[in-house]
Amino acid sequence: MGKFDHLQQEAFQANMQLPQLHLVIFTFGNVSVAGREEGVFAIKPSGVPYAELSPDKMVIVDFDGKTVEGKLRPSSDTKTHAVLYKHWNKVGSIVHTHSTYATAWAQALRDIPIFGTTHADHLTVGIPCAPPMSDKMIKGDYEYETGFQIINCLKSRKYSYEEVEMMLVGNHAPFAWGKTADKAVYNAAVLEEVARMAFLTEQINGKAKRLKKTLIHKHFERKHGPDSYYGQ
Questions:
Q1: Which parts of the chain sit beneath pLDDT 50?
Q2: Active centre residues (catalytic)
Q3: Helix (H, G, I), strand (E, B) or coil at 196
Q4: Which of 47, 88, 101, 110 could form a disulfide with 195 if both were Cys (CB 3.0 to 4.6 A apart)?
Q5: Would you say residue 220 lies in a domain?
């Protein structure tokens, strides 16, 4: 077995979940999985269709975005992942997609409002949308700067990346993360479903009100609070 076989296998399995969950078409997305002890992460190769992926095609990259092992070029979003891993040391996996509804909210430059308890089961706030990047950032090291656009948006909202594990990049698309690959993929799927529900809510009632605080905290705390009682 190779040194990074476990990371490549985990990254492959996580990437293969994206088309199964209808979060990507063609090559519109990627998952990475970090090996904190090794100081590297495994990520999908750039532009390779999901049907052609295999564990050995996952590229191993360090937290500066430099390829450590692999014959293929890593995802074009690799530097964004690297920045997030380097600054958020409790993140174990990152997912980037162009899923339809979440991307539509990103293109509309809008936070996803917290309309219902499905949303509140996962977050106590709207899903943030970072503003579009400045021309200087776009013309510079674009993917590297995208990482800081995400970090700075959460800082400006005073949100912790451990509490808010999903967001939108304005005019671009969604990112999600978690301590494990399974959690990161789960968060990406939840983000897309909540985005779809919020869109439909506004279609039915353009004046729909945000969920009241008592319901927000009830639903969040019953799953995540010290006295949580959801599940076995």
A1: none
A2: 121, 230
A3: helix
A4: 101
A5: yes
- Residue 143 lies inside a defined structural domain of this protein: yes
Alpha-carbon distance 49 to 43, whole Å?
A: 14
Instruction: Look up the domain containing 218 and give its range.
Output: 5-224
Nearest to 184 by CA among 49, 9, 15, 48: 15
Q: Tell me how many domains the chain contains.
A: 1
| Terminal-residue alpha carbon distance, the chain | 37
Contact partners, residue 173, CB within 8 Å, separation at least 6: 96, 97, 98, 99, 102, 103, 106
> Is residue 231 assigned to a domain?
no
pTM, rounded to two decimals: 0.96
Asked whether the beta carbons of 32 and 67 are under 8 A apart, the reply is no
Q: What is the pLDDT of residue 1?
A: 63
- pLDDT tens, residue by residue, 48-104: 999 999 999 999 999 999 999 999 999 999 999 999 999 999 999 999 999 999 999
